[in-house]
Amino acid sequence: MKALADPGSVLSDGLARIRVEMQLPASFPPEVIAAAEAAAKRAPSEHVDRTDQPFVTLDPASSTDLDQAFAIEASGNDLLLHYAIADVGWFVRDGDLIDMEAWARGTSQYLPDGKISLYPAILSEQAASLLPDGLRPAVIFTVRLDPQGSAQLDGAERAIIKSRAKLAYETAREADLPPLLPEFARRACIAEDKRGAARVDVPQQEVVRGADGYFHLRFRPRAIAEDRNAMLSLSTNIAIGQVLLAHHTGLFRTMDAPDERVVKRLRNTARAYGLSWPAQASLAQFQRTLDPNKPREAAFGAAVHRAGNGARYDSYQAGVIPWHVAVAATYAHATAPLRRLADRYVVDATLAIANGRPVPDETAAAFARLSKIMARADALGGRIDRAAIDLAEVALLQGREGETFPAIITDIDERGARIQLRAMPVVSRIDAPGKMPGDAVTVRLDATDLAHRTSQFSVVHQDH
């Protein structure tokens, strides 16, 4: 799970079982690695020189697959974001061995103890990655942001860049960052609030063993630089989504609003965490009040991510406005081509449109196929996330068999009652005949099984 770290390797055996169960590849076939080694030597020949621009990257300290570098300048009352994106399309050609393997994978997949990359490391962590150790080919999107945070694409070009620094969320000081980044983020937040967006980023979770001998789940506070950096991709992807829609092509990231049953369940989850969700407030309005650096509010944010209908990829359809409810905008993924297959094609299409060229036939044809490919990859990622979360939850409970816990019944379906423990970020199911969603109960932990990632509870009594 992207949002779950295991710094002490306390879940190692369970994570190894997940890799086997999900049939996750341990490496790349030798012929794909050989093709990647050859591709890494491909010299750029269609790129203008932009090495004079002061690009930097901003990522977790441990990241080496750097998709984005950025520079920001003023243009009258507007801000211009020069967003350099790894030019994966320069190294990977349609139908080659690297491409075929990428279509089989769809995305990079993440577990707490490591990732399964979309592309071999010689590309994703070396030749194509925007590291500050030399010149790199990139696609630069220039995004204009007005004082109210409205973003539009001003241009796109293939270019050679040189990153000045690899900055990290954990250690970057204000003086290290481009001076206009805070103002860019402030404007983007204004636009987000105006749209009524409900996007809340969940901080990373870590499983640690406490002094009491039990495992605990703690949330790593999000750095201000991390939130500001997210606004760069968000604004760029919205600007690109608008361009693609206007030209009747593309692949869009979409998500529907949660249905009434999901909202009711989340209201019960909020109650379990002791959060005050006003009856008249929508889920989006309530989400915008959350502080992801407060553990209970962060845990609720994670519950929203798990409970939603899920985002998907939809290719352009005439007469349909693709919409992402959490972003509250038409939105396309373009800024992480080292980690998502679809982004490479969105980048190619946008590059063509921005320079007055027709979208390549192979790119347009790919959009029609990518929805299923990305859905399959997202579904696998969802199963991995759920398995990792289940493993972490059972680890938190181990050794507490026989203890009782206050809980809230958040939902009931054909599989029984879903409960949310009030003092721990743990969801489980129980047999609770006669109980209703919203009921407060005390449950006893009867058993845990780390190997199968399951826990068993029973109701002791109903609370009032």
TrEMBL record:
Coiled coil region boundaries: none
Pfam families reported in the protein's UniProt record: RNase_II_C_S1, RNB
Highest rank taxon of the organism: Bacteria
GO MF terms, alphabetically ordered: RNA binding; RNA nuclease activity
Membrane-spanning residues: none
Span of domain RNB: 47-356
GO biological process: mRNA catabolic process
Cited InterPro entries: NA-bd_OB-fold (IPR012340), RNase_II/R (IPR001900), RNase_II_C_S1 (IPR040596), RNR_Ribonuclease (IPR050180)
Protein name as it appears in the record: RNB domain-containing ribonuclease
UniProt organism field: Sphingobium nicotianae
Lineage per the UniProt record: Bacteria, Pseudomonadati, Pseudomonadota, Alphaproteobacteria, Sphingomonadales
